[in-house]
Description:
Elements: E1 10-14, H1 19-29, E2 33-38, H2 58-63, E3 67-71, H3 77-89, E4 92-95, H4 101-104, H5 109-115, E5 120-125, H6 140-146, H7 149-152, H8 166-189, E6 194-198, H9 199-206, H10 208-217, E7 234-238, E8 244-248, H11 252-262, H12 277-282, H13 284-294, H14 300-309, E9 313-316, H15 320-323, H16 327-331, E10 335-338, E11 345-348, H17 371-378
Amino acid sequence: MTDLPLAGITVVSLEQAVAAPYATRQLADLGARVIKVERPDAGDFARGYDETVHGQSSYFVWLNRSKESITLDLKSPDGLAVLRELVGRADVFVQNLGPGAAERMGFGAEKLTRAYPKLVVCEISGYGAEGPWKSRKAYDLLVQAEAGLLSITGSPEEVAKAGISVADIAAGSFAYSGILAALFARASTGSGRSVRVSLFEALTEWMGSPAYYAAYGGRSPHRTGARHATIAPYGPFTAGDGGTVLLAVQNQREWSRLCADVLERADLIDDPRFARNPDRVANRDELEKIIAESVQRFTADALAQQLEVASIANARMSTMDKLWDHPVLAQRERWRNVPTPGGPIRALLPPADLGGVEPRMDAVPALGEHTAAILAELGWSSS
């Protein structure tokens, strides 16, 4: 096994909630030392979201393994002095505080990059560090609404939010890749630079396909529940035993195989109502009625097997309890045990496998667990 790619890189993060912690956890996975700066009273407020994982927050244990936690009172001169010293020794500084908070403390990107020319500074905001909404608070569901995601998600009768924090995760992912790019550039030029990511623009990037569809097609994609809005057939069907199987047809070859090899309705292949994907979308209700009737002769298992034989993409409707024991994750040995203050948990390996590298999967820190050690390292007393 080779050394972790980011070994020797130190990240100081004034982080909370999801976006910044997701970015820095990925840096920690690759070997960076991540020093998480938290409030002395309750720390990162994501610690209090729930108490489901050995008395700890499900969000927090997911996002904060392999980090060191130091508590600092940033309203005090000593707390700010310690933070300045930490940042001065760091390679990367990340923050996703409320609008203007970092600047008021003297830790805005422009000031830091002038003071520390090699420092990579990453700021994550709601709607951008500049512009008309720079002072506006932003939380994930609100950003889903502003970016139009709610308008295309759900059933025809009711909008629905995405079941996970997609705006935060998108921003955290772009922050992570931006930091890596800045570190790569620094290796060539010797100079750091700032990385700025907003939740709104990150999620808007992910909205590219429906945005183009609406701008150039003249209308927004319809809300179609678990069905694909612009491809058909693509969605769930109920087999004869009541089980649900999702199938997806992406091209004409798959359409022909579905008709001939699964539905036993070769006459549908060139039916003008369904000949091309735009035709199938326009006549979705008729098409889905035919498919629903045809699959009644199968059990869900048999239907999934027949689709697999015909090389038609398919899936079963899984649930969270089944995900933990999914055969792909189990047989590929994707789980590791990670210590937490409340007890050990299973944690998923990072999705990107780097050849010869075993990701770092260290403990989730207790609030302020490393305060004394870090202060001693800087020559400060913890008393």
